[in-house]
């Protein structure tokens, strides 16, 4: 997949079959849109393209300045490529862009600048200032500019349409099973292993303290989780704790600490990707080393059982 930053689009790309949106998480609902996109591209013999925005429109419009994302830009690129998308075009999202009328955006960006010849949209997609461009409006604009517009039905799980908002809500609740089902893959965090307090290693549970690669990445609810850990091409089983360290009267900032089962190598400075499988428990305040060890032993037994399924 080729990645381009608007307006630096090579003229050699030519006309496109496209869809547009932020695609946070590239979840099952997005997958349905991308499947229809690649179909439409094949039908008219043109490359497929996702037109996305940066930063998130809700942040620019002041609706959610602290918005956390389901995937980093790098993860989004990888996920979109896995669906067979040929091109990704990122348009800087500004208040000026947000204030464009649907007619102007469709003509100036989609038709004239990006040469879109077929457009695929999700069931709830809107375009232009104050989301005035609903599907009826987009379809009429397509007819005006001879651009076929295809609408994709909602992807429904448990009687509700899958959305990035619902996935964020599930992660906030620590409901990993629901989040993973809506995503269509295990939710993941990536980062660099940095030095921590090293209490765990004194009781046989050394942990990798992870500094996130993407500061905007959303964290699941504080607690302990069963996880699979990727270190380069190697995959390991393990458990991970998210929360403020309050063990043994040492309150500190939020930490993300992973214990890799049956592993003893020094990996400080290395990169890890953690895939969430299931939640083990909520955060618990622990007052002694012996109590901490007992809890970690119980967590390990539970995690190993879950990961063996």
Could you please describe the fold and organization of this structure?
- With 309 residues, this protein is an alpha/beta fold.
- The chain has 2 domains: 2-161, Rossmann fold, CATH 3.40.50; 186-307, Beta Barrel (Elongation Factor Tu (Ef-tu), domain 3).
- 30% of the residues lie in helices and 28% in strands.
- The protein contains 9 helices and 14 strands.
- It has helices at 28-44, 57-60, 73-82, 95-98, 102-113, 135-144, 164-172, 176-183, 289-307, and strands at residues 2-5, 16-20, 48-54, 87-92, 116-121, 149-151, 156-157, 160-161, 188-194, 208-212, 223-231, 234-244, 254-260, 271-282.
- The protein has a 6-stranded parallel β-sheet with strand order 1-4-3-2-5-6, sandwiched between helices. It has a 6-stranded antiparallel beta barrel with strand order 9-10-13-12-11-14.
- Strand 2 (16-20), helix 1 and strand 3 (48-54) form a beta-alpha-beta unit.
- Helix 7 (164-172) packs antiparallel against helix 8 (176-183).
- The longest helix is centred in the last third of the chain and has 19 residues, at 289-307.
- It starts with a strand and ends with a helix.
- The mean pLDDT is 92.
């Amino acid at each position: 997949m080729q990645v381009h930053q608007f307006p630096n689009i090579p003229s050699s790309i030519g006309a496109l079959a496209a869809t547009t949106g932020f695609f946070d998480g590239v979840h099952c609902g997005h997958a349905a849109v991308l499947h229809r996109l690649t179909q439409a591209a094949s039908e008219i013999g043109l490359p497929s393209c996702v037109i996305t925005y940066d930063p998130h429109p809700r942040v620019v419009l002041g609706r959610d300045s602290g918005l956390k994302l389901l995937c980093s830009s790098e993860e989004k690129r990888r996920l979109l490529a896995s669906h067979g998308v040929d091109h990704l075009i990122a348009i800087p999202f500004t208040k000026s862009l947000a204030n464009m009328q649907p007619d102007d955006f469709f003509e100036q960006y989609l038709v004239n600048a990006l040469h879109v010849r077929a457009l695929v949209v999700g069931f709830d997609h809107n375009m232009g200032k104050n989301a005035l461009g609903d599907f009826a409006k987009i379809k009429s604009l397509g007819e005006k500019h001879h651009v076929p517009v295809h609408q994709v039905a909602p992807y429904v799980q448990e009687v509700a349409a899958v959305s990035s908002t619902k996935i964020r809500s599930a992660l906030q609740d620590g409901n990993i099973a629901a989040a993973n089902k809506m995503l269509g893959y295990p939710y993941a965090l990536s980062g660099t292993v940095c030095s921590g307090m090293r209490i765990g290693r004194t009781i046989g549970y050394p942990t990798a303290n992870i500094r996130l690669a993407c500061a905007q990445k959303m964290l699941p609810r504080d607690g302990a989780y069963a996880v699979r850990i990727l270190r380069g091409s190697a995959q390991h089983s393990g458990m991970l704790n998210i929360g403020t360290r309050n063990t043994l009267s040492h309150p500190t900032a939020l930490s993300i600490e992973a214990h890799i089962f049956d592993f003893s190598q020094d990996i400080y400075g290395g990169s890890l990707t953690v895939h969430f499988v299931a939640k083990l428990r909520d955060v618990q305040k622990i007052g002694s080393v012996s109590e901490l060890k007992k809890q970690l032993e119980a967590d390990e037994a539970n995690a190993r059982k879950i990961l063996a399924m």
